[in-house]
Amino acid sequence: MQMQHDIEGQIPILSVLTITGISHKPKExxxxxxxxxxxxxxxxxxxxxNAKGLxxxxxxxxxxxxxxxxxxxxxxxxxxxxxxxxxxxxxxYFGKVEKxxxxxxxxxxxxxxxxxxxxxxxxxxxxxxxxxRIVSLLRSAYENGEEAVRRMESLTK
Length: 157
Fold this sequence. Notes:
With 157 residues, the chain is an all-alpha fold. It is built from six helices and no strands. It has helices at 27-42, 56-66, 68-71, 74-96, 100-122, 128-155. The longest helix is centred in the C-terminal third of the chain and has 28 residues, at 128-155.
């Protein structure tokens, strides 16, 4: 999927799903259903027309690889900080339900996103070296996301 951006430099690639309420399902069913939902999300099975799930990674990486002006924009910083912070929920959840391998993977994803955010907020993202470090962190998070999908798929079969 080719990512597009508008003249103002927006990066229309990410959306958030929040689950609320109480369920009376057994914990094992909640875990299995949560992993199925996560896999569906990560494989792009949502309504959003933008790059979604794991496909958002190459789209965001391309921005940092190819477009210094957008890389330096507040939008890039917003996406790194906001969506990076959301990764914390995944690693905490998997830790809580004692899926330690998934918790570790998502903690690594979270740390990579937050380090990319730290770099973006403290350094000049118009410099190729700065963008390369951000890209490296996002690629690492992307690879971990792919591994998380494989593990969750194997656990929900």
